[in-house]
Specification:
Elements: E1 12-13, E2 23-24, E3 46-51, E4 57-63, E5 67-73, E6 79-85, E7 91-100, E8 111-118, E9 123-130, E10 140-141
Parallel strand pairs: 4-10
Antiparallel strand pairs: 1-2, 3-6, 4-7, 5-6, 7-9, 8-9
Length: 146
Amino acid sequence: MRAPRLAGTKGVSAATGPGQGPQVRPRPRSPPVLPASLDPENPMKTIWKFELQPNRLQVIPIPAGGQILSVQTKGDSGPLMWVLVDPDLPLKDRFLGIYTTNTAVPDDPGRYVATFQIMDGMLEFHLFEMDEPPPEARLIEEPGPA
């Protein structure tokens, strides 16, 4: 005969013998959980940082499917972009355009990504991602992550 369960307790049952308090039954052990970096069925992602050039069209190699998380400045440095990536995937060129407020922007600048400021907010920039660069564009090739 099974001992009755105590209300609101998981894995604890009431004792059946006289003078005995509640007893804890050990739960069955589950298999150990591998850290994601060691589990081949669950590859681990990481965040890469890229330095950008303001007011430029640029191409940056990023692992396929990389997700742009943020673009900001840090201290007196130029703009930095953080991207969530799976480093095991092949690199794919991503085309970025950075435009200053009150300057000419193409009719279709691409998908808006972020706005950032430099020089204590004196200059404002807007980052867009394009599927492909405009035909007349002169692109700057950027190295890998910073």
